[in-house]
Every structure is written in C-alpha cells, then in structure tokens.
Write a structure and sequence with these properties.
The protein is α/β, with parallel strands linked by helices. It has a domain of 173 residues. Helix content is 48%, strand content 11%. The protein contains 13 helices and seven strands. A seven-stranded mixed β-sheet has the order 5-4-1-2-3-6-7. The radius of gyration is 20 Å and the shape is globular.
C-alpha cells in the first residue's frame, strides 16, 4: 500500500501557489484539539486566524499547534518569476510587448514554461506515445502530454497550469525529479528497489480543487511506472488511483494541511516573501523546484 501524503493549498497575495503536505504517519491530534476549542466541525485557517490570540493564550494548545504545523512540508510555485523570464526571453529576440505580444500571449507562454519546468516533463519522452488515447503508428505524433496540451486538459488558464505543476512538484522532490529523467531517458537506471520507491512515493490525496489535474497526475504516474521495471506498481493499492482528491471534512490530515498552507502564506506576507524565513518554520520548503535551506 502506498504511504499516502495529504496536501491542501492556499494562494498568497502575490499569486504564489502554496501547497502544505503531511505524511500519513504525522501526528494529527492537534487538529481535533483546535477544532474542539474553536467549536468547528471542520478546521480551516480562515476560521483560526481571527481567533489566533485566544488560541495562543492556551499554552498547551498553542504548543501542540505550532509543533504540528512545523512538521508540514511546503511546496511553492511562483508564476511571477516564470513570467519575468518568459518576457525577457521574448524581448531578447526582438519582440516588443504591446506590439508583438500582449498579456494573454505572455500568460499562455508562462503557463507552458511552468509545466515544462515541473516533474511532468519527465513523462514527455516519445517512448510513452503509445499510452496516449490518440496513438497510431501511422498517424501524427501525439501531443497529449506536451505542456500546452496539459494546460488545456486541466482548464486552459495560467492558474490551472500553476496548480497542476505545484501538485507535481509536491509529489516529486527535486532530486527525485532528476532520477525520473535519468530513468525515462535510459541514461541511468536507479536500482529496482529505488524505482519501486519512486513510484510508490507519488501517492497523494489532495483537497478538492481541480479534478482534471488528478487525471493528468495519474497519467504521469502511469508513464513513470512504465518507464520503471515495475509496470504492475499501480496495482499495489488494488484498483484505486495513486492520486485522488477528497473532501477534507472527515480527514484530519487535510484540515491540518489547510492550516499549514495558510500559516505559510502569512509568514511570507510578514517577511516580504523571504523563503529562508519560511524554511525555518517548516520541515521542508521548495519553490519552483528548488529546495530552500533554512540557514
């Protein structure tokens, strides 16, 4: 059985998409404690925030809350950095904003760049073409898993590309991303047990937000399984998909993730977006596929 990791997200005031995750074995007693104190059927950061000073006055509760929050892992995708890079690239080739391209074109290209830079790019190799619905040995090469196609499949807008890329980054660490690229390209195959571990570690339960991205992420897992020596891996959890969305109302881990994501966004707002400060407050932080050190 995959060791599922549970994640929920929050968007910062400057459009950073922030996912907080908790491992399946993370202690979640603090969620029930805080929910009971706030007299809520479901714990949400938006309900906690106006009551934070009252919670802080309860020393034991505050201690349990902060310790629980610190065990979260934070994954960020910052579209502004990609947009700046895409715009600079266009201008370096002589294109002029407002004449040769507009904000709509810029946002389209930014979405493609974000997806291309995500772990999903490991699944674009031609050896996976036969997995596509429109595959034909005699027809045109399928483009189902190109960045533009993925963006269209998950909703078509920049925000959908950001969400899908962030979920992929949350499923695969930067070092694992490189291992998958090597595995898919055939340059260097990890050991069989490592390949199995890489596939199993992708299992996720996200809060309900974009069901279309779940289909893409499960296809990503399928492609990685076929690149490995463990094509049967998807059967480890019966017929259930490796990536799902679930209602957080009955899942303490997802309620905790909502809390941690909101907490992270507030830390960024109070510290001018400083990622090192954020990393000091959580177990692990990455942004745009780069691990942020806490010192």
């Amino acid at each position: 059985m995959p060791n599922y990791v549970y994640g929920d997200a929050c968007v910062s005031g400057d459009d950073k998409y922030v996912i907080a995750q908790f491992r399946a074995d993370a202690p979640m007693e603090w969620v029930a404690e805080l929910r009971a104190f706030l007299v809520k059927d479901e714990l949400k950061y938006k309900d906690f925030f106006p009551e934070r000073h009252r919670v802080q006055a309860k020393k034991d509760l505050w201690k349990h809350l902060t310790a629980g929050i610190r065990s979260a892992e934070i994954t960020i995708v910052d579209p502004a950095l990609y947009e700046t890079s895409v715009k600079a690239g266009l201008e370096a080739r002589g294109a002029e904003f407002g004449h040769d391209f507009d904000i709509n074109v810029l946002r389209e290209l930014t979405g493609d760049a974000i997806l291309e830079d995500s772990p999903l790019n490991a699944a674009t190799y031609s050896e996976f073409d036969w997995l596509s619905d429109n595959f034909s040995y005699f027809g045109p090469k399928p483009t189902r898993f190109s960045p533009a196609a993925i963006k269209s499949r998950v909703g078509g807008k920049l925000k959908h590309a950001v969400l899908t890329a962030a979920r992929a980054h949350a499923m695969v660490s930067p070092s694992e991303h490189q291992e998958l690229i090597l595995m898919c390209s055939g340059v260097e195959m990890p050991s069989p047990m490592r390949q199995l571990e890489l596939i199993k570690r992708m299992a996720r339960v996200f809060d309900i937000e974009n069901a279309k991205s779940v289909g893409v992420l499960n296809e990503f897992v399928t492609r990685m399984a076929h690149a490995s020596q463990f094509r049967h891996t998807l059967r480890l959890n019966g017929d259930a998909p490796m990536v799902t969305e679930a209602n957080s109302q009955s899942i303490a881990h997802l309620q905790g993730a909502d809390m941690a994501a909101g907490w992270a966004v507030d830390i960024l707002a109070l510290n001018n977006g400083d990622l090192r400060t954020l990393a000091k407050n959580f177990a692990w932080v990455s942004s745009n596929g780069v691990v942020i050190p806490d010192r």
